[in-house]
Specification:
The structure holds 2 protein chains of 2 kinds. Chain A is an all-beta fold. Chain A has no helices and 11 strands. In chain A, a hairpin with a 2-residue loop joins strand 7 and strand 8. Chain A is globular. Chain A starts with a strand and ends with a strand. The radius of gyration of chain B is 13 Å and the shape is globular. In chain B, a hairpin with a 2-residue loop joins strand 6 and strand 7. In chain B, the strands form 2 sheets. In chain B, strands 1-3-8-7-6 form a 5-stranded antiparallel β-sheet, with no helix packed on it. A 5-stranded mixed β-sheet of chain B has the order 2-10-9-4-5, with no helix packed on it. Chain B is built from no helices and 10 strands. The chains are: A mainly beta, B mainly beta. Chains A and B meet through strand 5, strand 9 and strand 10 of A and strand 4 and strand 5 of B.
Chain lengths: 112, 110
């Protein structure tokens, strides 16, 4: 099993729909992150969490919300999806030493 | 000035060539540095960590120049499997702030 698992792998949804992307990890890491990647723009941080009670906005949090249900679970929600949220979304974890990320395989989201 | 700048490439090199990428960063407080490789439509994977002046792992060498605020990645004896996008990632001392560069694309040609 993968250390960081994202579901779904692919999703097509309609404008205005609510959608949740899920992430779970078996690394035992406290820190979890959500990024989106767009062609030519690189990875941009949406939200991050350093422990279960800690939630922080990243560079592009507007239109998104998150929930840290447990140390191992961190979900990302789009309350009302819009087409410019079409992107590749990655969840990542890291240890408290900051020794680098482990990424999930990504969720390819298309909003039509 | 962007926080992290990389030449987007693509760098097209023949098998066996040596290729180097540079990355400049603007935050002088950055303490840890990472190189990730990302294959098309896949997740980034950690390639190397750089905490002092440099690091070497087989065919890969990373060098850090704190005074000039740049890090480089050297790949010797390029393989076809090295074709990917290479992301430069500085981080602060506590690993609380990772900033991803836009990446440099490498194509190794037969």
């Amino acid at each position: 099993d993968a250390d960081v698992t994202q579901t779904p792998r692919n999703r097509i949804t309609k404008t205005g729909k609510r959608i949740m992307l899920e992430c779970s990890q078996t690394k035992g890491h406290d820190r979890m992150y959500w990024y989106r990647q767009d062609p030519g723009l690189g990875l941009r941080l949406i939200y991050y969490s350093f422990d279960v009670k800690d939630i922080n906005k990243g560079e592009i949090s507007d239109g998104y919300s998150v929930s840290r249900q447990a140390q191992a679970k961190f979900s990302l929600s789009l309350e009302s999806a819009i087409p410019n949220q079409t992107a590749l979304y990655f969840c990542a974890t890291s240890d408290f030493l900051g020794s680098g990320y482990t990424f999930g395989s990504g969720t390819r989201l298309t909003v039509v | 000035r962007k926080e992290v700048e990389q030449d987007p490439g693509p760098f097209n090199v023949p098998e066996g060539a040596t290729v180097a990428f540079n990355c400049t960063y603007s935050n002088s407080a950055s303490q840890s540095f990472f190189w990730y490789r990302q294959d098309c439509r896949k997740e980034p994977k950690l390639l190397m960590s750089v905490y002092s002046s440099g690091n070497e792992d087989g065919r890969f060498t990373a060098q850090l120049n704190r005074a000039s605020q740049y890090i480089s990645l050297l790949i010797r004896d390029s393989k076809l499997s090295d074709s990917a996008t290479y992301l430069c990632v500085p981080s602060d001392n506590y690993g609380q702030n990772f900033v991803f560069g836009p990446g440099t694309r490498l194509s190794v040609l037969p």
